[in-house]
Design goal:
Layout lengths: L5 H32 L7 H29 L3 H15 L1 H9 L2 H4 L4 H10 L2 H14 L3 H27 L2
Helix pairs in contact: 1-2, 2-7, 3-8, 4-6, 7-8
């Protein structure tokens, strides 16, 4: 029996990411257009909670093709190490986002960068789940260590955020 080639499997993963990006774009545009139609409705805690739930849903959608990518590359140390390096780079965006939020022009404005930073910080629950799953599935020591570093950065950033939020009240 012929097995599916590695390139075709990677193609399916890329299509999965493209599909998730398409769904995410549609949902974000739909939410943005709803805010333009009735801006007063989107100035409440309920709207902020809805935005956070949308964010968590979209991050969860991205975890689906990521799971299949991890299953596909987990037997290749080189591929999994590259994946772990990408995760480490992604992990560094959490403290970078927190630092950018301290700049009033970013943190106190309704800018695209400010929104990205805020959403990146509050994606902690799903990001932690993705990092933990990637670490559990890692077969090799170096990628596992890199993912653990990324997880540590993520956790420390969230703890720092909670500390900063607690000190302001």
């Amino acid at each position: 029996m012929n097995s599916i080639s590695w390139r075709i499997k990677i193609g399916f993963v890329v299509l999965g990411y493209a599909g998730v990006l398409g769904v995410a774009a549609m949902m974000i545009v739909r939410r943005y257009l709803a805010e333009l139609r009735d801006p007063d409705m989107f100035n409440s805690g309920m709207a902020a909670g809805g935005d956070w739930m949308l964010e968590l849903f979209l991050v969860a959608l991205f975890l689906i093709p990521t799971f299949f990518l991890v299953l596909l590359i987990r037997n290749s140390e080189a591929a999994y190490t590259r994946f772990a390096q990408v995760l480490l780079g992604f992990g560094l965006t959490a403290p970078a986002s927190m630092g950018l939020m301290l700049i009033p022009a970013v943190g106190q404005s309704n800018s695209l960068l400010g929104s990205f930073c805020l959403y990146r910080i509050f994606s902690f629950p799903m990001t932690a789940i993705g990092l933990a799953g990637s670490c559990v599935l890692a077969k090799f020591k170096r990628p596992r260590r890199l993912i653990l570093y990324s997880t540590l950065i993520e956790i420390l950033s969230f703890v720092l955020l909670l500390g900063l939020m607690g000190s302001t009240h």
